[in-house]
Amino acid sequence: MTDAQDGVLFKREQDSQAVDTNEVMTEFEFRQSGNDISIRLKGPLSWVDEIVNRVNPFSAVKFGDHPTILLGTDDDPPGDGDFNISPEAKKLLEQAGFDLESLQDVFHFDDGSFKVIVPDLPGSSNRQKVGNAYLLQGFADFLLTGSAKFSDEDARGLCRNYGVYDPPNHSNSLKELKQEMIGSKAGGWTLTMPGKSRALKVVSEAAGATIA
After folding, report:
1. Measured between alpha carbons, how far is 72 from 5 in angstroms, rounded to an integer?
2. Which helix (H) or strand (E) holds 31?
3. pLDDT of residue 188 exceeding 50
4. What's the pTM?
5. Which domains, ranges and CATH numbers included, belong to the chain?
């Protein structure tokens, strides 16, 4: 495979065909579910799309700045425990001594995102549960993208799902997370380092796991 420049044809060693590189260049990373296999494709969008379609992956999810393709076969589909988490999240979890298999007690990967599946939100009060819902939602996106940025809509929806959304007091509940997250309702929230650490404690509590 040769490097592509503007106005130069991008050669494909696979079949000796060429495509015009005046189109958008893109980059995809392939990750084999359950294995340490990572293959990165970089080139014209049409060529990358063609290779992706040949593989026929289960799903494409955002991974860092580029989409990640989770591979599998019809005979061996990804299960609840087949997590392909971001390197940033994996590093944090391993540093804390968190058992990665315990994630399946808190999150389920479905349709390109991690869903919170705990029976009940941790917390002794409604206000605590709201705060923990936001932390869990932020950590879910941290697992996926490594950025810990999430939308208020998703977190608010999680509160509704668990019956803790209290419109008159919702904003007051979020004021207790001033150190744990930054952002706004309109622009979305991002977990700070203290927020990631606190979120990990909530995940550990929900999973019944221990951390260092």
Report:
1. 33
2. strand 25-32
3. yes
4. 0.62
5. 9-71 (no CATH), 87-207 (1.10.10.10)
